[in-house]
């Protein structure tokens, strides 16, 4: 769970984990939902982000399992774009916090 506001909830959905030890890279989506909206009314704040394990740890509070999964095709498209950037040698990887990298 990420820090939200009085009116919304924000969380991270981890799709893939790559690497081991201190070189772990997490492939995530950042989602939000207004507290007054039905649970299925999710919005992708960031469809795809690569983030280091340390940055992810600094970003989130304890896991909330009742949030459920969001639309995976939104993430998959972002991940495909990121793989293309990685092939070119310059993929963006968040190494601070999710809130800083998404400018929330």
Mean pLDDT metric: 83
Q: Spans of 5+ residues with little confidence (pLDDT < 50)? A: none
Radius of gyration: 14 Å
Helix-strand makeup class = alpha+beta
Give the N-terminus to C-terminus distance in angstroms. 14 Å
Query: Helical content, roughly?
Result: 25-40%
Provide tags for this entry.
104 residues, alpha+beta, Cathepsin B, Chain A, three-stranded antiparallel β-sheet, 3 helices, 3 strands, 27% helix
Describe the SSE topology.
Blueprint: E1 8-18, E2 25-34, E3 43-52, H1 53-59, H2 72-87, H3 98-102
Antiparallel strand pairs: 1-2, 2-3
Tell me about this structure.
- This protein has 104 residues and is of the alpha+beta class.
- It has one domain: Cathepsin B, Chain A (Alpha-Beta Complex).
- The protein has three helices and three strands; from the N terminus they run βββααα.
- A three-stranded antiparallel β-sheet has the order 1-2-3.
- It is globular.
- The two termini are 14 Å apart.
- The model has no long low-confidence stretch (mean pLDDT 83).
């Amino acid at each position: 769970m990420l820090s939200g506001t009085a009116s919304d909830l924000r969380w991270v959905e981890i799709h893939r984990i790559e690497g081991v030890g201190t070189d772990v890279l997490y492939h995530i989506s950042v989602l939000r939902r207004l507290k007054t909206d039905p649970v299925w009314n999710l919005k992708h704040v960031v469809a795809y982000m690569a983030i280091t394990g340390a940055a992810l740890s600094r970003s989130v509070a304890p896991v909330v399992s009742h949030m459920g999964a969001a639309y995976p095709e939104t993430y998959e498209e972002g991940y495909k774009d990121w793989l293309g950037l990685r092939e070119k040698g310059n993929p963006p990887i968040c190494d601070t916090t999710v809130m800083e990298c998404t400018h929330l």
